[in-house]
Amino acid sequence: MPLPFDCRDGVLHVEDVALPAIAAAVGTPAYVYSTAALRTSARAFRAGLASVPRKQLAFAVKANPNLAVLKLLAAEGYGADIVSAGEMLHARAAGMPAESIVFSGVGKSRRELAAALDAGIGQFNLELEEEGVVLAAMAAARGLRAPAVLRVNPDVDAGTHAKISTGRKQNKFGVALDDAAAIYARLAGRDGLDLRGIAIHIGSQLSDLAPLEAAYARVGELVARLRAAEHTITHVDLGGGLGLSYRPGEQMPSPAAYGAMVARVTRGWDVTLLFEPGRFIAGDSGVLLTEVLWVKPGAVDPYVIVDAAMNDLARPALYDAFHDFVAVRPSGQRMTANIAGPVCESGDTFAMGREIDAVAAGDLAVFRTAGAYGATMASTYNCRALVPEVLVDGGRFAVVADRIAPEAMLAAQHIPHWMAEVEAAPRKAALRPATGRALGAAHRPRSRRSASSGRLGS
Ligand code: LLP
């Protein structure tokens, strides 16, 4: 089977679609996802866990909440790991059954808890004792018992970027391992709560299985202690975190290696294991397609200024993340360059002094491994459009998220009525200098129009 992202006849394709065709139809920048790649990674992750007898797979919606992507994953048997009512809305709209949804998140609002209870979601991952107390009361008032597990913080250094590390004791997530048994005992007896196990998630983009194994082993000890105290433990949520190779040649643990480790550590636990992969499923399934606007001389290396920016792909600016940059029509020539976007911050730089395919203004290129934490972290900073998303399936493609143009953002803003009234006067004054002519008019040819512009707004 051909690779989902491959050069054919000198042109980079996504499956059977040449990227210039997408650029022509949709414009740039744009995220482009491959159906085949999504399916392949979803199946590879499941296959890696073949030796785990009872399991549930919940895609971490935060990695890519695109409706079409979620629908594809639902068809692959994935439920959803959500962290907000908005993500629940997306998962439900994609056809994911409520029972297959797990609600993680350190700050669930009471309104969100109520919405999730009313929807009948499959599991609440409690982050603190008080949340369990509140959820229990809300469920009891509805005549329900909320299925829940307690998230513990194992105090393990996941060895990943500090901003995406979640399992050290100074992080905001979970309850301290030492306090877990006591909190569990206090929550377990409550009406309205079906407390049934433990959850853990120590971080994302994990390149080493050892910290995961250490954390899982601590969960195993806790499960044994809880059982010794007569608690019934039926579910353990092992979170997500499996890393991806972003740099050519970078070695990452395979799903098979991960699955073997999980099978080894959890042998004898006799529970249903939940998994919340995000990046592993979506990351390699998407690219960010961009056009080179200018190649500008720099102090050391030239700047390749592309039309994608930090607002479209925030990971390099936030985490110094590496995304491979590849020309859509590589000439075979190479250059050393800095790659930057149009946003007015030096942080809007994707790479410094990197050897890349030689590119010139007007060329198309992609940032690879952009299918996870890409479009979903986009913003409209600098009043830039919200980047569109395209899904390829074989020889066809469709826009699966529109480009939200600045006009639409403007239409969603409002001048309060009191400003509409008072604003007019000072603005007129500012526009009319002492000569009585509108600012800017001096630069226009003295046509009848510019002459009359002296009365602009009067
Ligand atoms: N479960 C929980 C409770 C999580 O907090 C996360 C990710 C996942 C699962 C999925 O982890 P994954 O399999 O994708 O590693 N924006 C950052 C990543 C933030 C991850 C947050 N939590 C980035 O672009 O690297």
TrEMBL record:
Which parts of the sequence bind substrate? 279, 315, 319, 345, 373
Keywords, ordered alphabetically: Amino-acid biosynthesis, Decarboxylase, Lyase, Lysine biosynthesis, Pyridoxal phosphate
Record-listed pyridoxal 5'-phosphate binding positions:
241, 276-279, 373
**Which CDD domains does this one have?**
PLPDE_III_DapDC
Record bears the keyword Ribosomal protein = no
> Which residues belong to any copy of the Orn/DAP/Arg decarboxylase 2 C-terminal domain?
31-371
NCBIfam families found in the cross-reference section: lysA
Recorded hits in HAMAP family, A to Z, give: LysA (MF_02120)
Assembly description: Homodimer.
| Protein family (similarity comment) | Belongs to the Orn/Lys/Arg decarboxylase class-II family. LysA subfamily.
Described purpose of this protein according to its UniProt entry: Specifically catalyzes the decarboxylation of meso-diaminopimelate (meso-DAP) to L-lysine.
This chain belongs to the protein called Diaminopimelate decarboxylase
